[in-house]
Amino acid sequence: MSNLAGKANAMTLITPIDGPVMALINKTIFFFLGTKLFSSKLKGLLTLSMIHYARWVIVSARDFPRLSQSQPAEDLDYSYMLFFSNFNGSWAQYVDSFSAAIPDGLDGLWWRNVGWPQSVPEQPFHRYVTDNQLWTSHYYSAYPMAASNDVKSAKNVKDKLRQFIGDSERDDSDAFLTRYNRLLKSLHHDLGQMAPTPIVSLAAQAVEERRRTDGRANA
Amino acid sequence: MANENGNAYALTTLCPLLEVSGEDTSPAALIRDRLHRVNTGASSPMAKVPNVYFCRFLILDDVIYESKPHHLEHLQSQYLVFEASLHGQLAPYLKGMWEQAQPFVRSMWQFCVGFSEVNDAASFTAYIQKCQVKTTFFFNGSTDEPLAEQLKSLYLKQEFSKFAYAHQGWSGKDLQAAFKDFIARVEPENLARPTWRAGATDLKGVVIP
Fold first, then answer.
1. Which of A96, A109, A114, B9 could disulfide-pair with A16, CB 3.0 to 4.6 Å?
2. Do A10 and B41 touch (CB under 8 A)?
């Protein structure tokens, strides 16, 4: 069991919402967040830059897939919000960053979810997240050595490098050097080598060690 | 559509489990056990599936009780939760998943209601679409490029960072010649190779030469 895949950390939460009206209100909040007028409310999430991809999914009883008549239909009074995040860093770094940087945003995203304690102070907030978290059994990242910022900066490096190759094709050596230095200056936020993640969970590290040992033993 | 954000797609599925497995262990316990044994990183079966950025598997046993004064309720079924953040459209992705990871797919979904009718890419796609729940809001804090572009970009970032570090203070003439060799080696337009290997967790095996 692991919520970790290198630098990526998987958080899965399930939180109840009290009834269809409240679920509709929450869906409406998300709808407006998806419009240009209100998308600036997510600026805090972008600024923190810890998330690769995240999603919120609100389901009521009738939304749970029922694939056979023999499968009992769900009978739930609450609606439920599922939250899936792929982020960088440790659980505590993630939860604390959001609580400290965008408390109002969090209170809006989990608006009146049952038992939601508000994102500040941190202790009740931590308890709520822990109590409502589900553990991942298999987690996969296509680039475990890259943080979200690495993926974005890599795109910038690739785009500017390709542009530079074309632009510098006919340069003499002096013009090339000038253009090259300009390229480096424009990429100084984006360059830097990636490496395996530092250990953020001793338990996960122990599992990895055990896998390696078992792998050697079975080889 | 809330499942999409640009060219990125959020797939969320809740696949109901059968009540019994036919073995002496419950479907949930069997699936968990199998998931825990699956290789991780570049050896994960999902590393072969095109255009998946991230994915996870877990079992939803029940909903969570928030204690009094709220009331207690239970799910009628357990669910295998499979969610993926991917590039492009759902149907080609699921076709690729079936083609590249069929033994894994069969093993994980074996104890799910309705999966016994799945026998090819088309029926797998139809099955997953029946289990799909609509995303309310999808946040993309990364890029929505094809995975091959992302992996090539990461390779170029890594290699160009090394190049820039190693060639500080060089003359224009020498630098221009070294850069020409560098471009011939890294092939920026070739997405197939050299590039980064999907799922690689250490520098030793990350480059596909």
1. A114
2. no
* Residue B124 touches partner A, C-beta closer than 8 Å: no
CA dihedral A107, A112, A117, A118 (to 10 degrees): 20
AA identity, residue B12: T
Q: Which residues of A touch B130 (CB under 8 A)?
A: 65, 67
Interface test with A, best of B33, B40, B112 (most A CBs within 10 A): B40
Q: Which residues pair with residue B79 across a beta bridge? A: B16, B60
Q: For residue A131, what are the CA distances in angstroms to A46, B64, B74, B143? A: 27, 8, 16, 32
Task: Give me the phi and psi of B84, to 5 degrees please.
Answer: -140, 140
Amino acid at B37: R
Task: Please report which residue ranges of chain B form alpha helices under DSSP H.
Answer: 27-37, 90-109, 121-131, 147-166, 172-186
pLDDT digits (tens, 9 = 90+) for B121-138: 999 999 999 999 999 999
Put simply, whether B86 touches A (Cβ < 8 Å) is no
* Partners of residue A70 on adjacent β-strands: none
**The pLDDT value given to residue A203:** 77
Q: Given the cut 0.90, state whether the ipTM is greater than it.
A: yes
Contact residues, chain B, for A51 at CB < 8 Å: 139, 141-142
